Amino acid sequence: MFFKILFYLIGVYCVNALQDFNVASADFYVENPWIKTQFTQQPCFFAPLVVINVQTQLPFPPQTICNVTSNPLINCTYNFHFDSTNTTLFVQLYLWVPPKTFNQEISFPLFLSEAEGIKRGTILQTNKPLLFSCDVLDDPIVVVKTLNNGSLQKSTEYSYSYFGHIQVETAKPNLVSASFQNFTIYPVDTDNTFTIKLKSDFIFDNQPTLNVSMLNQVLIFQNPFALDKIEQNVDVKGSYFSTLGFPYYSKILLDYYFEDGLDSPYSLDSFYFTHGNSTHFQRYQWGFPSPPSYKETVYNGTKQVFTFIPLVESFFIEEPQNRYLSTPLENQEYISIIDANFNTNISFSFEYNGKTISSSYPFGLINVLSNGTMVNRFSTYFNSLYDFELSLKSPNSRVLNFPAAKKANSVPSMKEFNYTITGNNSINFRFRLIDDFGVYNYYFRHQSIGGTYNSFETLVSGNEKDGVYQLELSNVNKYFTYSLTVYNINGRSTYYSYNYLYLNYGIGLGTSLTFIPLKYIKDVYVEDQVVDVSNGSFNTSLYLLVDKSFPILQDSLFTISLSGKLFPSFLNNQGYYQFDIVIPAKIRKGYLSYSIYFNDFQEGNEDIYSIFGEKSQIMVTSGQFDFIGPVVESHGPSIPVFTFTSTSDSVDLSWSIRFSDMSGFKSATVNIISDFDRLGYTFNLTSSDLISGDAYDGVYKMQFPTIRYCKNMKYYISSLTTIDLLGNSWTYGKLSNRDLHPLYKYDKVIENPEPTFELICNYLVPNDIVPSISKLVLNSPTQLDTLSNNRGVKAEFTVINPDIIGISLRHLPICFFQTFQFADIVNATSVIKTLTNPNNITYECIANLPYGYGLRSNVAVSIYGISNNYYNLIGYSAIDLQKQFSNSIINTTINQPTITSYTTFESIGGKLTIYGNEFGNNGDNSVSIIFSNQTTLTPLSLSNDDHQLITDHIGSTNISFTVQLVNKFNRVSNLYSIYPKILCSSDCGVSLGYGYCNNRGTCTCLGDRAGEDCMSVNSKPIITPNPISPSVNISANDFSESPSFTSFLSVVSLRELEISETIVNEFIFDNTKWENIKDNSSTTQYSFKYSLANTTIVSNVQVFTEATNITFGNQQLQMFPSSIKFTFDISAYPFAKSTNSLQLVMLATFKSKDTDVCSFTEFTSDSDYDQYLKIQIQDRSLFGRFVKYGIIDGRERVVTNKLLTDISIYKSDESQTFIGLNIPYYSKQALLDPDFSVLINTDKAGDKENSICYEKSKGLTSAQIAGIVVGGAVFLFIVAALVIFFLSRNSKNFTAVKLRKIVARN
């Protein structure tokens, strides 16, 4: 563990100084506490980071020493640096303290060297040194024992190491890791009891148990590698494959055959594995020289060593040749443009300023030599004040350099840094960056998930030489570790480390303070301990309970890493962090490897197993495993050679390719080219191209267009990507794969040569006639506003061919737009504008450049991919075009106001701050806010500058809206969407631990808390669903003074309404006609069907005994304990008009068995998602939630829910409430999902305005008393008859009239 300890340096004084300097404080950060305990007589290692703050700025940096008091055995080394103001000194110490050393004093005096009138030896000395102790675990009363009955788990798939767990009980603190008796020990502190993970890579295969002596005690472990447990016949076969294009590298593919099967310990370690099962599988290695022989030892079976003779082949290097840089052209200020020239045989990539750009045809290609070698030339911008370096790869790297004539040595710096927590797991960072020549970009890194490069798009004020940048990150918190690297346009950089940002600005925890001790983890368990992924992926959950005493629990973020993916967590009703994870299909059998991240610190499943055992682990089973895409078994053209005897000949070519994959072929993309036809032909293969076999082993056909022109050349596969039905994919690129790939079987060049198709020309082919560009026009503004909404550019050019052979219509030229430091290369394929004749064609390229493109360097245009019919290629770099036409550079500027970001805007309304460019000054602009209903608000601006504007008095809204700015020149910015942060209508009792506000704007309640604000308690009523129709009886029998209650829920009718809400049709449900459609013997879930003439209504009634999270549409809903959910699935309905709608009517009744009570009924909206019905009598309430959306014709649509007051009845002791669920017009299906609970409230109905209370009379007659008794007794009868009343409210039928009178009286 790591602690921050703050020492105040008192009594600091200066000796023989002309001037006093005060030291304010020293902050000490040390790895582990000041005392450590070793297992053996070894020194303890400490690495404290000492930060000393000096109150007065020193004229020059002071020096320091490591001052060890009276102990020559202490080994102390250090390095240090001062910040730019000479006021903060960072000293990194490395200490080795001998064992049995206690309270060793080490201090760090500062002294100033002789300069500026300050004498040598001036001392700034602390009065409080650091104290270090190194103890040894030699206490004779230490208790040591094994966990899990001394079992060992196999740990990895490659060395077959294993791990077990030991518990050590000692009062000595802070055990440290150590090597011990062929094991490595990893202590985990849990309050003076250390659980030790004992891990070894040394295999003892000749003994059934392993005896470990520790602290004079012998611990016995069961050996999982003992031969008597795993002896079986094992065979291993292998063969070598060349790694074409890379010198001295090869691949080896091994086939393993196990008689009884390999017990794989981990399931997700797919590196080096291809596919197979437990008895036969493959794995491969690559990147090593081919040895004269190769040995493989297998420990999961009879120990066996095999040797074979490798494939011996000649190796060659594929790398750029004839490399040089041309003379640069000046562009603007210190930005120049230069051409890189080189030859390759395949496509290339290049690296510049840390970025790798992969080129593809035809970028850079200006010619093809007679031997098929590509001649490349492309232009690139660079800073002439800094040495230019360009790394070319094809696939091996070579570097081109251009020295700066005059160097600029400035380095960027950060002058200000602050952050604001803007919402749930979101932080807004702002920092001021300065550089004499300009900041190019910055890399802000988050330790767990990596970082991003950002540039002017995040600039909110100032400019590139002195500007404030703003960056908002989500799924982070202040306890993560962050670092910042700032780059200037010269390529120089400044790095601000994790510790620097923490120590100076308080963000993160520094690199030494990121962990959570396991003692704070109280429970870990999984929902499914054994899962089978043989036939598909598996969804399950893992649960984590963290002790509430964990100091930073409230703001911590917990995620789980699995198979390279991060899964988030949420706090469920039981107070556990719940991770819903997906285990991929067809992975290896064994324990699932996972890591839980606590902010930036992670705990792997091995450590978690040491405390929580099997319940925290997932055993994966799978009949097969598959980690690779489909493999090419064979391929080839329909004919190997075709000879053209005259110019009138042509050939119809097809190419077949056979794929195999144990999971099934899904798709493939195949590119077949020749040395001269570098465009070639691309085929996207799917199951429709299958001509024989099946998805697991099938042959697919590629049909070429008719080839009408000849050149002596061969066609071959240049690139290939395959994908199987699991999603496994991999890619082949000619001469560029070091590891295994889909075409690896053709890497045995001698045994299995690659198939090709050859064209032979028996007549003279015009190889020397090359097309050219005769005219170029760039149609763009004189000054392209790179931050405006109009960033469209167009290049129009004419290509001529000096012969009658014609320009190839298949090879369309491509325009490339480039800017400084390759902030992406934008390309646009040309279209034919005018075809004057086959040898004179005018093309145009149209592109919309990215925001800010060319801000620093203008935009250069190059054109590649021009060819005539005889495959004579040509291309032009930007410098080529500039030299010939003097107009290949597009000048850029900034005028357009552009909104780029905003601060978090809460749904309650108020201030909004937007950021961007070209806003103007105060009073120079106006802002319009456009809401979804098209109403517009023009709020006053409180303040603004060129990059920031603040407005106020924006009303509350949960719906997103757009904002737009107009400057004084009447230039209109982009429309920018604002998404309000939704707030709950209450605090959800968060301070009391009752719940919290979720991202739906509703409360998620914890424990037994319930209701829209979590202030109610579940009453745990008796719920009795009707087994023959969708209705539910609810009763609450209380043993306190509170009254008892009964409730009844049912679905009553289906209405068709006109737009005026006039009833067109009405279907009253007869409870005797509901049909059971599943076994309703369950006491928690029932399903019924009601059939009308043309429509079917399916009603599901589900009772939830415990708190549960369910999903409806794209929303997650919380079901309270003892709640009832109705789901209605309504099939197609024959609407009379498309403007009509349906209304599903439900009845909710709530009655007290006492009469001297008060009632209150309300129907409200708490968020954009939900409406609530609350019928309260005294402190009890029937709580109904009606979601404001339904799944209508397969997608979420808004539905309205209405309280039908005209037919509802409200009295002091009962409420009979009808609710209409309004469904918009639809064609296929409507799905609705209301739910209900009975709750205990903290307030009473009589305390609320508009409540109905019992009015006591002076006396009651016998008839009145009898009426009350009869009224209570017949409540259930009345409820059952309400449907008849509802149906007959306008009827003249005698029974219906009489029933209405009875209900009205009661």
From TrEMBL:
* Sorted UniProt keywords: Membrane, Signal, Transmembrane, Transmembrane helix
Which part of the chain is the DUF7035 domain? 625-761
Q: Which residues form the DUF7743 domain?
A: 409-507
DUF7034 domain spans which residues? 771-895
User: What's the short name of a Pfam family annotated to this entry?
Assistant: DUF7034
Transmembrane regions listed in the UniProt entry: 1265-1288
What does UniProt give as the signal peptide span?
1-17
Query: Where is each ComC supersandwich domain found?
Result: 1051-1239
Query: Does Membrane show up as a keyword for this record?
Result: yes
Protein name as annotated: EGF-like domain-containing protein
